[in-house]
Amino acid sequence: MPPTPDNDLYELVRAAIDPAAIVKHIRAGQAGAIVTFDGFVRNESHGRATKHLEYEAYEPMALAKMREIGARIREKFAIHRVAMVHRLGRLEIGETSVFIAVSAPHRAAAFDACRFAIDTLKRIVPIWKKEYFQDGSVWAEGDIPPAAQEAKPAS
Question: Is 43 a domain residue?
Fold first, then answer.
């Protein structure tokens, strides 16, 4: 079967993500490589102990943007299939929040496409993360530290 967007997988889920099932979905005889990205909840963020996270999304637009990323990947890279699954709701330390998998005939395209997928997802998909700490919570803004930063003195 030739690779088509119909074989791709884009989901927002509220239950635990099953990486093995996703990899199985994109594995095919035409592919010679699968590259995955498993983003999971760590126990600290910018020097603060994390208790847990919560993710929210504008779901119809988030899924549309994930499909858009998939279409851009197909234009840019020689891949077979792509899967992007993001978890919503409360996540505990160690739980997978986002899993991306790309199959391709060759490893270079799979690596490049997987990196493009996660970088683009973080920039354009309307999914928001709230981080909970011992002393409160903050909405995270990408890679910007959530804790207040002291102003640096003028030079």
Answer: yes
> Looking at the DSSP assignment, which residues form a beta bridge with residue 99?
38, 85
Gap between the Cα atoms of 128 and 146, Å rounded: 13
Among residues 83, 76, 119, 77, the alpha carbon closest in space to that of 100 is found at: 83
Check which CATH number belongs to the domain holding 50 and give it: 3.90.1170.40
Q: Which two tokens stand for residue 24?
A: 């199985």
Domain annotation covers residue 153: no
The 3-state DSSP class for residue 144 equals strand
Which residues of the chain fall below pLDDT 50?
1-2, 143-153, 155
Of 23, 12, 25, the closest CA to residue 55 belongs to 12
Does 143 map to a domain? Answer: no
pLDDT at residue 150, as a whole number: 39
DSSP code for 141: B
Residue 47, in any domain of the structure: yes
Q: What is the pTM of this model?
A: 0.86
Domain extent for 115? 7-134
Strand partners for 13: 87
Q: What is the pLDDT of residues 101-111, one digit of tens each?
A: 999 999 999 99
